[in-house]
Amino acid sequence: MAGGRAGVADLRGPGFLNSDPTELKAALAREARALGFDGIGITAPGTIESAGRYFLEFIASGGHGDMEWLAAQPERRIDPRGLWQDVRSVIMLGVNYGPDQDPLAILKQRTRAAISVYAQGDDYHDLIKKRLKALARWLVATAPSDVKVFVDTAAVMEKPLAQAAHLGWQGKHTNLVSREFGSWLFLGAIYTTLELPRDDAEIDHCGSCHACLDICPTAAFPAPYKLDARRCISYLTIENKGPIPHEFRKAIGNRIYGCDDCLAACPWNKFAQEGREAKLAARDELRAPTLAELARLDDAAFRALFTKSPVKRIGRDRFLRNVLIAIGNSADATLAAEARRLLEDASPLVRGAAVWALGQLLPREEFDAIKPAAMDGERDEDVREEWQVAS
After folding, report:
1. 262 labeled binding residue
2. Confidence (pTM)
3. Same structural domain, 318 and 274
4. Residue of 34, 58, 255, 316 with fewest CB within 10 Å of its CB?
5. Residue 122 counted as an annotated binding residue
6. One of 146, 152, 199, 332 is an active-site residue; which one?
7. Which of 224, 252, 282 delimits the end of a domain?
8. Does residue 191 sit in the same domain as residue 295?
């Protein structure tokens, strides 16, 4: 690695600026890999027009659900120049987070929680943004220019841009697929005023395969390459702020944060590699925690367990809502005690989910016996409705 960095340093200065731009691109790629990026590609800002049209159709259909931030100022998202008019090149970067075990195996352990692979380690936003800033500083020092960095927190269509930059292609599940890393790439972007050599767009290699569509528990794909987020378990357990609609609760199983089914089903994962970044690797305590221990988390314990984790952003109440849905799906009557205790929780969202869980686990006579007393003092309409639906 030291030799690689020395090679890059030798290229700096006025002599380098006057050389072939392909040398700058090659040096940029070496620096990116030295910083821990696993993939890099470059595209022009005007290469995702068709993706922009699909995005506007997606918003018009209401498929984004309550994610109003997606619908806000769409012109800033469908063309990088709408976000920053001076951008001349878009540098797309990927970090592999391939798991070290089958992400679907946990779904058979019904008393344990399934947390999406990307959320079992440290929050990727922090890690990747630091690397993006370091690479951007190198670029500015090497070839003076203006830059902006983004990692999944701004109006940037990362996946279409990544396909345009040859990092992979958007599969029928709308996620990026890489021939080298399968489904497991975190993406980041650097916008720059430099004119850099472009990569050819990656072509679609899905062929006739539809494994990702077939495995979806909630039929969230109305057609290949189209997603209805309102039916997606990742949306329902993360972005959705209210009660989870009844029609999806059984299908959620023990997934308490996100869903990896469509990603894990992709045959291109046979080429996937285990991620090399220790901070993104799964923490032992988040691989397969028991639903019982998670149900006992108060706010302080929740924050402590999920320090530096993306899970923390949904808050303890939504998290326990998800845990209680999983408890209701567990078919383990011993977990009814956890749900019953949470009938007294301060959050109506938690109390409502506890009602549903008890309705799934308790014999009808026992459930009916606790219902009147519980409803008498209940003022929240959503919770009362849960009791009525469970009748």
Report:
1. yes
2. 0.91
3. no
4. 34
5. no
6. 152
7. 282
8. no
